[in-house]
Amino acid sequence: MLLTTQRKIKKWMIRLLWLVFCGFIIWANYNRFNHNNFANYEKAVDFGRVREVEDVVQPVIAAVFYRNDRAKHKSLTSYLSHWDRNRIQNPKMLAVPKQITPESKRVISKLYTEINRAGKYDQILLIYNGSFTEKEHLALLKQQFKTAAVTLFPIDKNEAEFEKKAEKALNTDKMLVVALLELNEDEQDKFLFDEMIYLAQKKSYKIRVFDEVDTQLAQAQEENYASWFETENGNKISELQRQKNNLVKYKEHYGAVILNYFTHNLALSPEMPIFWPDKTAQTYRLFDRGAVYIRFFGTNGKEIFSRAKIGKNKGIIVAVIELARKAIIKVKHRIASYKIYILTELEKIEKDINTPLINYLETDDGVYIQYHGHNALLAADERPQDERALMTALRIRAKVPDSAADSDIDYYKFKTVEIQNEN
After folding, report:
1. Rounded to whole angstroms, how far apart are CA atoms 242 and 289?
2. Which of 174, 180, 198, 80 is nearest to 119 (CA)?
3. Using 50, 70 and 90 to split pLDDT, how confident is the model at 234?
4. How many angstroms separate the CA atoms of 291 and 382, rounded?
5. Quick one: pLDDT at residue 247?
6. What pLDDT is recorded for position 210?
7. Secondary structure letter of residue 420 according to DSSP
8. Could you give the CA distance from residue 416 to residue 247 in angstroms, rounded to a whole number?
9. What's the CA gap between 60 and 389, in Å, rounded?
10. CA distance 376 to 7
């Protein structure tokens, strides 16, 4: 073969390779742009930091009326201008928000904790007007006042008996009156609002206000509001716990939609195209970046397949759908159930060689390990509680040789939020 012919063939081969490469790039980008499944800049673990919809922040306010021998006051405003800087003594009445929201729940829980420290109660009279979230309010009461009997008293049916019933309760030792009403709304529950003030005046009770947002109504002169966000033992919330809390909010907003796309793609045959969501204003946050781990179980409850998408910078919905499609190809048996986990970021454990790994973990912490390109993870609900069993399970799953030293392995911990199939 002539030298010039060889050069021409080589030249055209190079051109052909470049053509194939460019064609692949065009095809790959066409698929991504066609389905618009690029991951967002936002991370799912930061969900809730910035409000998706601008709205008016309403103050969450609760109040404590407690016994004191001071002179009577004539209005709520005068009560609020007299702050008690000493420890609350003998609480008798509480006014807490009727609507249970994440913000009001924190205030109510904190208030009940403080009241439980100030006095012990055998009975609680829960007063309300109209409908309310009964189970949630009762659960919050039972959480702190475990031995107290709770009596419900709807005033819309018993207005004539209210004053008599409430005054009898206030005169009873070890009995607490809890009224559900919104102190930051003048017109709501007006009858109950007025009656609470009347009884407080009649009994010469003092008042202390708990709130999360400084308002003209309550200036919060003595409160350190950072304490509302602290854990029960007084420590600041950890970064992983903060991320988990955000993932809980993310799941509440989008968990059902994610589950719908997952089950839809899981039901498709391998040769059928992927069913992607369109990226709209309603589905945009499905593409927030995040890590996903899914476990699949057979009819006998035995795990038959598991896979994770970690460190891929993928959108949550993309990772979930891809794992569903992977299961279709890999799993030959019937999938009876599954668990979908959204993970927080990985936090490296600076493990001392003589300290058991279990000592670094909280109850809801999962574990992730890396060893020379090998990696594996165990979610909190699947990891053994025994140190030896935990280390053995991690090494087997990551295919770490027995000769590998513990110091050569990188350990990480994380928390998870599970998207459950309600059906």
Report:
1. 17
2. 174
3. very low
4. 18
5. 94
6. 63
7. -
8. 8
9. 47
10. 50
